[in-house]
Amino acid sequence: xxxxxVTIFPEYLEPLNVSLVGKARARGRLDVHVHDxxxxxxxxxxxxxxxxxGGGPGMVMKTGPWGDALxxxxxxxxxxxxxxxxxxVPTPSGRPFTQELAVELSERPxxxxxxxxxxxxxxxxxxxxxxxxxxxxxxxxxxxxxxxEAAVLVITEAVARLLPGVLGNAESHRDDSFAPGAxxxxxxxxxxxxxxxxRGSGMTAVSLSGLHWMLGRRGRDEAFRRTxxxxxxLIERCEASAFDKKDREILSxxxxxxxxxxxxxxxxxxxxx
Length: 273
Ligand code: 6GU
Hints:
By secondary structure, this protein is α/β, with parallel strands linked by helices. The protein has two domains: 2-160, SPOUT methyltransferase, trefoil knot domain (Alpha/beta knot, 3-Layer(aba) Sandwich), CATH 3.40.1280; 181-271, Trp Operon Repressor, Chain A. It is 32% helix and 17% strand. The protein has helices spanning 19-26, 63-79, 99-106, 123-129, 149-160, 205-209, 211-214, 220-230, 232-236, 245-253, and strands at residues 2-7, 31-36, 49-50, 60-61, 85-96, 110-113, 135-139, 197-198, 201-202, 256-258, 264-266. The chain binds 6-chloroguanine (6GU). 6-chloroguanine binds next to strand 5 and strand 7.
């Protein structure tokens, strides 16, 4: 996979040299190119922003540098044999970034990220590229960052670990929390390692024996409880047929009731725990 990032803070992308993403690059699974947007400015002050039409606070990133930067980045990539680019535009107004979108992006051969600062990029830039290639605006959560660079790091890490040959064990991400088709979309449960006894807190005989693992219930009950408490929206989304007897017991203890439609719900006043 080829990844291009155009940014006014190339040094913000340094972590792409480290850890899993760094190793994927070293192994040739990822070909990352970080570009300084200011290389495509031609005035003394390397201006990339201007005041917004119609007034309002903040500054807007100008069409000129972005258009030239993206044209040259595209030309370079095509010349190097890359094809089928997708423009990934980080913005708090974008489509929520989910594991499903990570899987979708991991299946593309070429991603071009355009993290912006200020109030964002003049709309005409993405409208123009959208006539030639898929453009996907992506938000990594319901909060506002000062710029899109941190989102590029997040998205790239989530995508890179899905590429064949990047994680040691190809099975490792099959039961990730949020993996499409993960067991009833549960969060992952707690994990433990040696020593068996720590500050007065020990492992149960069942955990130590590996019986949980063999029964396919490794941490399942705790995972289920954690999901019901931290992510009630995931439980509400589930068909009740996805829950076994033990799940129903746990839901009942936590104040959930089955409703005629087949799903579970919980009285709002029980929400705090
Ligand atoms: Cl992608 N960018 C910015 N600036 N803020 C965000 C975001 C992106 N996702 C959530 N908040």
